[in-house]
Design a protein that fits this description.
The two termini are 29 Å apart. This protein has a 5-stranded antiparallel β-sheet with strand order 6-7-12-10-11. The protein has a 4-stranded mixed β-sheet with strand order 1-2-5-3, covered by helices on one side. It folds into 3 domains: 68 residues, Uridine Diphospho-n-acetylenolpyruvylglucosamine Reductase, domain 2 (2-Layer Sandwich); 151 residues, Uridine Diphospho-n-acetylenolpyruvylglucosamine Reductase, domain 3 (2-Layer Sandwich); 106 residues, Uridine Diphospho-n-acetylenolpyruvylglucosamine Reductase, domain 1 (Alpha-Beta Complex), CATH 3.90.78.10. It has 340 residues and is of the alpha+beta class. It contains 8 helices and 19 strands. The structure holds flavin-adenine dinucleotide. Flavin-adenine dinucleotide binds next to strand 3, helix 3, strand 8, strand 12 and strand 13.
């Protein structure tokens, strides 16, 4: 029997800490729970439904008049292994960083650069989370899903998930139609380290040797020096995606702003650092008139809840940022955060 809360505050279920209510919050443990909520439970009626993982990439702007399904199936299971690899099946409700810590402490490589990312394992394939030159797709072997239509189950290969930059089939064709029940990861027993990205090499100089544990610690150190901890300051991490513009437009902007960081993209496209653009508009550390929300003073890409912010306060800042960037650079910033 699945646990269901009615007309409940979800303040502690979203990392922005927005205090709104949901009509129904259903806890998911196994595929049988989906069958139950679609036959006898609140999804029996024609109600809106959203899957809520750790709530670290969703912004609620009003009470949610529908059903939130929240996976809590928290397990890590060794499926098989050979000399070089181990296959671990992990429940959607497992905290992502708890899983990374498990992998690192057992000497399994592949996801150490994704240390300290908030959220749960179920959202890792949805978002194809990434950081420091690594994406979840690099280690995902299979994804097991349950259908909201009839409760049927299937296992999808890495290719079938159609992974791309912060994207996958779960954000398009499968969005809120299938729930990710578990993810099987293929990790390396003889890990190769990716340390050339960002300031990892610099941070690693503080340690005597380079191994999975020190890479994880270096990344945690770097992240905590610039990103707010969700337990202390509400946010959803990077609010905007790094925009991808034509290389011609990038060259034009570079003539005026030669310091603009750029990264080569596909087919004559160039990726630009959104945080840098926001900083150039003098918005780092901005606080709204009400004093409820602002832009993080250590990382301009992060919009923060300064206290009792509403979803509307956060959206207002996001829209102000978008128009300032458009005026100055003629670039449209697209939110990475899902606004509900
Ligand atoms: C301080 C901070 C730093 C961050 N840094 C990074 C970073 O470095 N890199 C990065 O990629 N992201 C980062 N993020 C964003 C966020 O952590 C990731 O997007 C994370 O994967 C979201 O996980 P979640 O469980 O909180 O998902 P939620 O926010 O609850 O959901 C995100 C989306 O996935 C869907 N979803 C969730 N679970 C499931 C499931 N089981 N089945 C199907 N759909 C599901 C939801 O419906 C929603 O569409 C950061 C966020 C914060 C707050």
């Amino acid at each position: 029997m699945t646990k269901i809360l009615e007309n409940t505050s979800i303040k502690t279920y979203n990392t922005f800490g927005i205090d709104v209510k949901a009509d129904f919050l259903c806890f998911y443990n196994s595929p049988a729970d989906i069958k139950e909520i679609i036959t006898n439970g609140p999804l029996h009626r024609d109600t809106e439904m959203i899957i809520l993982g750790g709530g670290s990439n969703q912004l609620f702007t009003s009470d949610f008049k529908g059903v939130l399904v929240h996976p809590v199936n928290d397990f890590i299971e060794r499926v098989e292994e050979d000399d070089d690899h181990i296959f671990l099946k992990v429940g959607a409700g497992c905290n992502w960083d708890k899983f990374v810590e498990y992998a690192v402490s057992h000497g399994y490589g592949g996801i150490e650069n994704l240390s300290d990312i908030p959220g749960n394992v179920g959202a890792a394939p949805v978002q194809n989370i990434g950081a420091y030159g690594v994406e979840a797709k690099d280690s995902i072997y299979k994804v097991h899903v349950v259908s909201f239509h009839d409760g049927s189950e299937k296992t999808m290969s890495n290719e079938e998930c159609k992974f791309a930059y912060r994207n996958s089939i779960f954000k398009s064709d499968y969005k809120n139609k299938y729930l990710v029940d578990s993810v099987t990861f293929k990790l390396n027993k003889k890990p190769e380290y990716i340390s050339h990205y960002g300031t990892i090499e610099e941070e690693l100089k503080k340690f005597d040797e380079i191994n999975l544990t020190t890479i994880r610690q270096a990344i945690i150190n770097i992240r905590s020096s610039k990103l707010p901890k969700p337990e202390e300051i509400g946010s959803a991490g990077s609010f905007f995606k790094n925009p991808v513009i034509t290389s011609i437009q990038a060259e034009q902007i570079l003539k005026k702003f030669p310091d603009m960081p750029t990264y080569p993209g596909e087919k004559n496209m160039t990726k630009v650092a959104a945080g840098w653009l926001i900083e150039q508009c003098g918005l780092k550390g901005f606080i709204n008139k009400k004093g409820t929300a602002g832009i993080h003073d250590k990382q301009a890409l992060v919009i923060v809840n300064k206290g009792e912010a509403t979803g509307a306060d956060i959206v207002e800042i996001a829209q102000m940022v978008q128009s300032r960037i458009f005026e100055k650079f003629n670039i449209c910033l697209e939110p990475e955060v899902i606004i509900l």
